[in-house]
Amino acid sequence: MSKIILFDGVCNFCSSSVNFIIERDKRAIFKFGSLQSELGEMLKNKAGLPEDTDSIILIENGKAYDKSTAALRISKELDGLWRLFYVFIIVPKPLRDIAYNILARNRYKWFGQMDQCMIPSREIRDRFLGGTFKRR
């Protein structure tokens, strides 16, 4: 079954991260959706996450993971040496999330922001969940 990654669709860093994942997910197990989409908001609510959640979210087997836990669980499925990063799951989540929160808080300042959510190319469009996009 596919695993769903919800990401900030207007964040340059987040969109680049999605492209990074796609290039290293040769088995195509991940599907993607924008946090700003109606479907993204519905999945967030269904998972019991607060409405203002704007971190990366991984939904697998009906359970939602966010922040560093999501990133590490994603890395575990990637091709190449990226899966080795999963070893950091042993670090307590509050400590892991310190670095994640610093990056998340500064992502627009450091990497910029788009006016609209990324539009996937024809080759990868089937990896993206449907839904209309809303601006924040």
UniProtKB/TrEMBL annotation:
UniProt signal peptide: none
- What is this protein's record name? Thiol-disulfide oxidoreductase
Instruction: List the GO molecular function terms.
Output: protein-disulfide reductase activity
* A Pfam short name: DCC1-like
Source species, domain of life: Bacteria
